[in-house]
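tool=predict chain=A
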Amino acid sequence: MRLVNVIFFIAIAILLVMAAHVYTTNHDVLVQDMIIRGEGVKVQTVILISFLIGFILNFIWALIMEIRQAIKGLNASAATRLGRRLSEQVQDARDLMAHGLPKEAEAILRGILDQRADHSEAMTLLGDCLLREGDPQAAALQLAHACETHPDHAEPRYLLAEARQALRDPDGAAAVLRQLASDQPKQALRALRRLRALHLEAQRWDEALETHKRLAAQFPSELSQAERAQGMALQYQVGLQKVEADQFKEAAQTFQALLKEDPSFVPAYLYLGRCMILQDQEAQGIEIWLEGFRATSEGALLQEVEDYYIQLGLPENGIAVLRRVAATSEHEAMAKFFLGKMLYRLEILDEALDIFQEVKSQVVYSPMLFFFMAKIHARRGRSEAALNEYRQLLRNLGTLKLRFECAVCAHKTADYEDRCGSCGSWNASHFSFKESDLPDPVRPESGSWMLA
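tool=predict ok
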């Protein structure tokens, strides 16, 4: 019995005592008659009947409230038991899905929804089951219903985006993720990352970069170093899009902004130089390549200079530039190596050999260097010297390797790549002077971009 009822009965008892006192002190008045509808009725009888009616009404009301409370408690207990049973069934469905049995899990989840049609977890898991069963259309319908029923829940929205992506509707998936990020800005980190990945997969570089900028603005402390590097790569891809659209001035601005943030991004130097040359600013383009070499020591930039002048039909200008770099650069050995290589390419063999001899004294391990020296000795008929260089090459190398290697996955290529064809990393291909080897004799010149 509730406290209010106890207080009520105590109050009634007090009133009875007070009534008894009033009765004894006012007996003469209470025994007098009152006329009600022509009938004489004693005052005390009227008072007693009124009191009994009020008491009975209050008692009935209290009894009704107690019964209602008891029924409510029973209903709550039944709901609790049902909730526990449904939770156990949901866990069973999860276990089946974890063991690769989505069909069996689907049957359990549909049973749950038969008992409680708005069960959020079951609705979401059913959509996931349908996705795993290879029915994205049904999954999308189920998850859309879950989103409408529970608009504040994020998980069905993520799965809905996945289902629409499976239906080859990337725009629909992106719309779901954008709406989720807008509705829940403080919890938008996951949605924005998914949205960025979606744009990356579709190669929509502008949208991916815009999403990345939102991430950087809203969650600067959450971005990993790899994500920050990815932001640089996205800027680069946007620049490439502009190059492909012949928007060389806009592309150059994009590459300049990128290099301001990351002065070590080699592909940006390569394309920035090309953009300047394609705008008839040859001197600035060459200087950008050289500036990139000074900043990064990456041989691909000197290779670009070499190929450009060869393609242009002005190899003597290329040699002059490389001589200047070799004389002034902090990376003297690398610069001299590329100067010697260009001289070798132009059949200026004796000077090339002299330069290679200088470089040989400055490096510990460079099979390509031994290869070029061996070839020059062979061309000059110095067989013994050539054999000695070949022995050095084989002793240092054992097996011939390609010249450029990805710093992330160690994938090797004959030419410089702005993005690794194996692992997809940007700005990871490097000409490692101590780990490079024979060039491909039919390697296409990088200056072929001039013919596009």
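The mean pLDDT is 86. Residues 43-98 form the longest helix (56 residues).
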